Amino acid sequence: MNNYHVAIIGGGVTGCAIAWELSKYELDVAVFESGSDVASGTSKANSGVVHSGINSAPSSLKARFCVEGNGMFDALCEELGIPLDWVGKFVIAKNDNEIRELERLRDIGIRNGVPDLEIVDGEEVGRKERNISCRAGLWVPTAGITLPYKMTIALAENAALNGVVFFLETGVSGLRKVEEGFVIGTTRGEFRATTVINAAGVSCREIVAMVEEPNFQVYPCRGEYLVLDRKYASLIHSMIYPVPDRELGVLGVHITPTIEGNILLGPSAEFIDDPQDKGTTGDMMRTLFREAKEIMPALPERSVIAAYSGIRCKLAPPEEGGWADFRIEESSQVPGMINLLGIESPGLTAAPAIAREVTRLLSGTLPLEPWEDHEVRKLPGKRFADMSMAERAARINKDERWGRVVCRCEHVTEAEVLSALDNPLGARTLSSVKYRSRARTGRCQGGFCTQHIVRMMEGDMGMNIADIKLKSPGSKLFHGRTRRDRE
Ligand SMILES: Cc1cc2nc3c(=O)[nH]c(=O)nc-3n(C[C@H](O)[C@H](O)[C@H](O)COP(=O)(O)OP(=O)(O)OC[C@H]3O[C@@H](n4cnc5c(N)ncnc54)[C@H](O)[C@@H]3O)c2cc1C
Which of 52, 191, 313, 348, when mutated, tests ligand 1's pocket best, judged by the most ligand atoms within 8 Å of its CB? Predict the structure, then answer.
């Protein structure tokens, strides 16, 4: 039975940030992820905003880790090649009441240590954002955007490069405390670890329940989004937020530019029973579009190309306002078990700071000797689509597969798809390719390129066609061939 110093349950941004941090020490670390790739849960389905810290109550863990995490992004993204853009954000007010809310948010931000906040009049907002009209706006220059799944992938792949073992498609189904640590029951057999970190997101309560009676409930709250075609990228330049709804503990439907040039509308906030229900609904799509149009009347009809949803791990029900703080703690009943509970927004921003805090908590139990051979591999740099003609020619001269475009919408080449498939985690689904290369994210949503990628999976990676999946363990695309090749 394999024996690790640390077992991390969950390969979302929290678990992967912890894995990356721990890979800097001489420790044996394993990550167990039930999905077919990292970022299978909420970490791929959010706004991708690096929050500044104006929305969390002063002295809360959310405020502390958000502000600390925000301050770590420049160095982290530079080191790992994670895309980051400090586009800034406007919270806009349409009347006197809302202007008072802007003042309240500004004061919270100042107490949390957020710099350079400024309330400007509607004209000033209009000068920066010609499609937005309002009475006033709170300008937050330290808010930025990143690609949440790329961030998770970069953290995970670099952790793997430095010896962290990732068990994908490996759900944790049981945990037993034994004298020397834990026995972890999984869908791939049993493992042992001295300490366990519960980073299972919306499933965090199920993990706690394996070893003790949980003293909390999870109230899943779904957020749906609409994605606009990249040709509308110039509609806004910064993020546009309404004054947040204080009843639900969420930020409201906002308009967010993305690194890739699509604009996001959303998210909604709907408390649901099934934490795995990541569906999208026609009703909610219409509501999102209508609410976004109230903020930006110039929003064109037919600009939407896709929809998705993510699930917030809320520890407070709607009737209590939906707001509860993060819980980052070692269990008092089961020493060696560190639980990360209620890691909802701003969890993406907070992840690097949470990872440092977990490392500090572990330092009481484990010897943290720095690992001298620690190395870093940046994410692949410029995409073919963004290269100059000279750069493209140079690549094609070296390898002709740079000259074969697989995804026509996003101009992704065979070389880029191959590099995505050849990742150090061994993740090999169509979604693994999509999140690493952008193939299948354009207007046709994979209608043209899926067959080419499948052929590469078979031909270049030697995969059996019956094992090729869309995104998750159960999502096989093919049952077999309709016609067998002649002998
Ligand atoms: C609509 C929405 C918008 C958001 N916007 C932002 C934003 O703009 N900025 C920001 O900072 N934050 C944002 N957040 C919050 C942020 O997305 C989350 O805090 C963060 O992604 C949580 O990461 P995680 O790793 O804790 O959880 P997850 O990403 O959910 O990862 C948990 C992982 O555990 C795995 N798992 C579960 N059970 C098991 C098991 N038994 N065995 C093995 N694996 C298991 C799951 O498959 C999953 O991959 C948003 C959240 C939502 C829902």
Answer: 348
421 pLDDT above the threshold of 80: yes
Query: What gap in Å lies between CA 441 and CA 65, rounded to an integer?
Result: 32
Q: Backbone phi, then psi, for 249, in 5-degree steps?
A: 65, 30
- Band of the pLDDT at 49, cuts 50, 70, 90? very high
State yes or no: cis peptide before 424, omega within 30 of 0: no
Tell me if 352 CB under 6 Å of ligand 1. no
Q: Is the pLDDT of residue 2 over 80?
A: no
Give the distance (Å) from ligand 1 centre to CA of residue 12. Answer: 6
pTM: 0.96
Residue type, 203: S
Best residue among 345, 354, 358, 431 to mutate for probing ligand 1, ranked by most atoms within 8 Å of CB: 345
From the number of C-beta atoms within 10 Å of its C-beta (0-12, 13-18, 19+), residue 183 rates as middle
Say yes or no: CB of residue 31 within 6 Å of ligand 1: no
> d(Cα 424, Cα 153) in Å, to the nearest integer?
10
Q: Is the CB of 101 under 6 A from ligand 1?
A: no
d(CA 377, CA 399): 21
Who's near 320: CB < 8 A, 6+ residues apart? none
Task: Give pLDDT, residue 1.
Answer: 65
Q: What is the mean pLDDT of residues 56-78?
A: 97
Q: Which tokens is 419 given?
A: 């590099």
pLDDT in tens, 156-184: 999 999 999 999 999 999 999 999 999 99
Q: 48 CB less than 6 Å from ligand 1? A: yes
Joined together, the tokens standing for residue 26 give 């001489």
